[in-house]
């Protein structure tokens, strides 16, 4: 693919180049992970974990430390997006204003796509709101007003259920409310992460947008799939999610592919293990040994995924609670052979 084939992404007054975004993922995309992604390069826009707006307000009112999910945000390089969720427009606006004024974030993103029951059925937020377009409009429009000129974006799914796909209507609502970009995950909320993302359906949404860019998301687990997304589907940018958790170098590979350059090879198994240990040290520096070791269990499983012996490693690393135990399990059990 020629280097000139893919234009940078414009989100309001912000230029994202390359147009490859790192998805916000709860429990994973913290400052340590973002630092490692930056060290490899290739991601045009990074994002925090999603932040509970109501919880943020409660901490603020009680003069407590702001959420751990905002760790690093004030000081790390830009551009950077912070994703927030709730179902109350006033609460969301209050938090959006603080993120812009106090943290100086580049983008405020609204989560209308999370399918997890705790967010949807219990809190009536995330993808639950896809059934309430006018409420979405109110949330977006209030955020746009208080955050200006910082752009506000929205992330959605195709709908709540395969029998109730309303992404075209939602796309129009999102743009009319003033959002600067729309990201669409190619599954419904009921699908969770089962099956395959429907990129044809994502692509069809473009016709329902007048001026704002469309960002496609779902199943992008190789540089080749990223290139195909731009070549075959009508999207302005892509967002990489779960596939990057154990492969933070995926962005640099995808960016090279878009430029028409040779794709950097996968790091060796030893190099991948060393990246994971670097990640662990960053988390320990922030949270201390005990909490960091527990947090790192899930990351370690991601780094091992797809390798021969990954299940055996997961069994052992899931039990560690000290730094010594973590290093011992990695030394003895981390897979150093790719899967067949």
TrEMBL record:
Q: Catalytic activity, per the record?
A: a 5,6-dihydrouridine in tRNA + NADP(+) = a uridine in tRNA + NADPH + H(+); a 5,6-dihydrouridine in tRNA + NAD(+) = a uridine in tRNA + NADH + H(+)
Tell me which residues bind FMN. 24-26, 83, 155, 185, 241-242
Among SUPFAM superfamilies, the record links this protein to: FMN-linked oxidoreductases
Q: Does the keyword NADP apply?
A: yes
GO molecular-function terms, A-Z: flavin adenine dinucleotide binding; tRNA binding; tRNA dihydrouridine synthase activity
Residues in DUS-like FMN-binding domain copies = 22-334
Q: Which CDD domains match?
A: DUS_like_FMN
Q: Which cofactor does it need?
A: FMN
Q: What is its EC number?
A: 1.3.1.-
The entry's keywords: Flavoprotein, FMN, NADP, Nucleotide-binding, Oxidoreductase, RNA-binding, tRNA processing, tRNA-binding
Mind telling me which residue stretches traverse the membrane in this protein?
none
Q: Which residues form the active site?
A: 114
Cite the NCBIfam families for this sequence. nifR3_yhdG
Q: What does this protein do?
A: Catalyzes the synthesis of 5,6-dihydrouridine (D), a modified base found in the D-loop of most tRNAs, via the reduction of the C5-C6 double bond in target uridines.
Into which family does the record put it?
Answer: Belongs to the dus family.
Q: What's the protein called, per UniProt? A: tRNA-dihydrouridine synthase
Organism equals Allorhodopirellula solitaria
Which gene is the coding source of this polypeptide chain?
A: dus
């Amino acid at each position: 693919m020629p280097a000139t084939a893919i234009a940078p992404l414009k989100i309001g007054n912000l230029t994202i180049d390359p147009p490859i975004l790192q998805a916000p993922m709860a429990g994973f995309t913290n400052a340590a992970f973002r630092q490692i992604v930056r060290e490899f390069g290739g991601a045009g826009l990074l994002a925090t974990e999603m932040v509970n707006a109501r919880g943020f307000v409660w901490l603020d009112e009680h003069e407590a430390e702001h959420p751990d999910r905002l760790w690093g945000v004030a000081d790390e390089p830009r551009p950077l997006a912070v994703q927030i969720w709730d179902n109350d427009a006033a609460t969301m606006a209050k938090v959006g204003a603080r993120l812009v004024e106090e943290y100086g974030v580049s983008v405020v993103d609204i989560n209308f796509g999370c399918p997890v029951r705790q967010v949807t059925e219990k809190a009536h937020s995330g993808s639950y709101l896809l059934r309430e377009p006018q409420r979405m409009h109110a949330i977006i429009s209030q955020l746009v007003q208080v955050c200006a000129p910082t752009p506000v974006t929205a992330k959605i799914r195709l709908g709540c259920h395969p029998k109730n796909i309303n992404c075209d209507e939602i796309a129009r609502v999102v743009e009319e409310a003033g959002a600067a970009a729309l990201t669409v995950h190619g599954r419904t909320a009921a699908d969770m992460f089962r099956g395959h993302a429907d990129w044809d359906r994502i692509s069809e949404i473009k016709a329902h947008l007048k001026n704002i860019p469309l960002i496609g998301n779902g199943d992008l687990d190789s540089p080749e799939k990223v290139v195909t997304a731009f070549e075959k589907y009508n999207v302005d940018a892509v967002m990489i999610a779960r596939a990057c958790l154990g492969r933070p170098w995926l962005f640099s590979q995808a960016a090279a592919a878009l430029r028409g350059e040779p794709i950097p090879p996968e790091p060796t198994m030893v190099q991948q293990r060393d990246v994971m240990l670097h990640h662990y040290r960053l988390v320990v520096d922030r949270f201390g040994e005990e909490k960091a070791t527990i947090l790192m269990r899930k990351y370690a499983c991601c780094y091992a995924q797809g390798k021969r012996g990954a299940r055996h490693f997961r069994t052992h690393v899931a039990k560690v609670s000290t730094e010594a135990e973590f290093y011992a399990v990695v030394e003895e059990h981390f897979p150093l052979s790719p899967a067949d």
